[in-house]
Amino acid sequence: xxxxxxxxxxxIVALASLAQAQTTLYVDQNADLxxxxxxxxxxxxxxxxxxxxxxxxxxxxxxxRVADGIYLPDTTGLGDPREATFQLLDGxxxxxxxxxxxxxxxxxxxxxxxxxxxxxxxxxxxxxxNSYHVVTGSDTDVTAVLDGFTITGGNANGxxxxxxxxxxxxxxxxxxxxxxxxxFIGNSASNRAxxxxxYHGTSPTVTxxxFIGNSxxxxxxxxxxxxxxxxxxxxxxFGGNLASSGGGMFNDNTTAPTLTNCTFSGNTxxxxxxxxxxxxxxxxTLTNCTFSGNxxSSDxxxxxxYxxxxxxxxxxxxxxxxxxxxxxxxxxxxxxxxxTVVSRAxxxxxxxxxxxxxxxxxxxxxxxxxxxxxxxxxxxxxxxxTRPIQVPYPAAYSSILTAxxxxxxxxxxxxxxxxxxxxx
Length: 424
Prior knowledge:
By secondary structure, this protein is mostly beta strands.
């Protein structure tokens, strides 16, 4: 009888232990208790790589929480240390912006407790020896999540594929990671995609993310989409990015990105497409998006379309951009039809476009409703030449943008002002 009771108790303890199996790991570079096994905030792993390695061998882990601080990818065991990257994992959500061990534990505020993934793995401040890709989402599915991080310091200036995707590199037809509340700032590439590179059928979902001050020597300063990629972007902002073509974004080779409530402001192309460039057979769909204050040295300050590209714009603002030809939208060689532009404003007919030497200019007047996103866009034609829009950017970068990118940016409008916003 006693033996049966002992066996029963042992089973109960085992089942209780199984039921309480840890599913979350913690990372805090300031954790002050040992062992650093990720069990709680004060026993947290000191590096994100340690937590990712642990999660890769433990199927029970579905979340990694990371406290504020600066985290570098691990170079241990790599022939080329610049290949160090944070590789996302299927089934694991990596979330930043937590207070951590000595400042409130699970309290989360991604602005107050900024969590930075930095590619500056070599000599501090010298980007020539930085990681090629700070984050990699290749061969992951929708259960691979990155939420609440600043990604910076990537420098993809090697040989292919290390010449593209300084901030993040995604490749593979099954790749569909999810990103939310992230900021890509100060990443670069010698070829394509200073901020994020999506290739070969990838379909990442990107929500409430900001791409600021990323650059490339060729295409897609903020983001480059290539070869059947179909990313979905919602409430994202592209500001102050630089490229030869497609300062904010370049869509190439049968890509079909979908953008909703996104803003392109202050991006620059040394050639074509300051805000966006749409290349061969691409079919971008944009709804409630704004292009303002972008510039191109040659064609298409707001948008440049060529080679059978067929973008669709619904209820979008394209205004106050500059270029030598077609300051708003330029229809380049090989694109025989105008982009499809649809107005959803109440009581208005669909927008029309006027064509003058391949330059397309919206001519309808639309009434703006209260935005469905936190980004408040306000336009009044009376001051269009000097103050076309107001866009809220993360407070940490507002001074950078105001001083160096687009001097007319100001603070967000009050909520009630958004309700009154209109074209006049």
